[in-house]
């Protein structure tokens, strides 16, 4: 009888040990999943909040540096004409009245992530602002300052204003970005005459590109316009 009781106690002890081990394993899995979930939430929060705060600070800093540079150039050499720039830093300011009076974003050369986190980027292979050809710009719609977050709200006839050190160029939108979506490999949109590689440009054009989706996408929304007015400073 004692042997039977001892066997029962041993089996009960083994069962409790197995259950205890399973509880520890389940607890470890639960803690791991919670940690992964918190990391994912943190990453999303950084992308959609943190990068915007950092980029918007960079927008303001680039704008201030550019205006200070213009003021210094005007003070030291007011006759100097410098309509283009290929160096680092902002080369101009973009304003779109339809997006509000406060909308002003610095324009920088290049379209790399580090550039687009400081403003909108100018495709370096395209024409400069106000020149005959295609002045093409790219910007984020979400994250990294989301300079083009409301770009798909624009309509035909809306003005796109580009200010440089020596002039202010006013373009008018001919085809709003929400009407055309292409693949990110469709580089014809930034050709001198978009879609017509056999033609030489005869007028100053502007192209605006952004991602149409809220997450990373291989698509691009594209808007086209043309220059209607140039005001020299």
Features:
233 residues; alpha+beta; Sortase, Chain: A; eight-stranded mixed barrel; 2 helices; 9 strands; elongated
List the helices and strands and how they pair.
Layout: H1 2-76, E1 90-95, E2 105-109, H2 113-116, E3 120-122, E4 133-138, E5 159-163, E6 167-175, E7 181-183, E8 204-210, E9 219-232
Parallel strand pairs: 2-3, 4-8
Antiparallel strand pairs: 1-2, 1-5, 3-4, 5-6, 6-9, 7-9, 8-9
The named CATH superfamily: Sortase
Estimate percent helicity.
25-40%
List the uncertain runs.
none
Quickly count the helices.
2
Shape-level CATH architecture: Beta Barrel
Classify the secondary structure makeup into a structural class.
alpha+beta
Number of strands: 9
- How would a textbook summarize the main sheet? 8 strands, mixed, barrel
Give the distance, in angstroms, between the N- and C-terminal Cα atoms.
Answer: 108 Å
Shape field: elongated
What is the CATH C level class, in words? Mainly Beta
Number of domains: 1
The strand order across the widest sheet is: 1-2-3-4-8-9-6-5
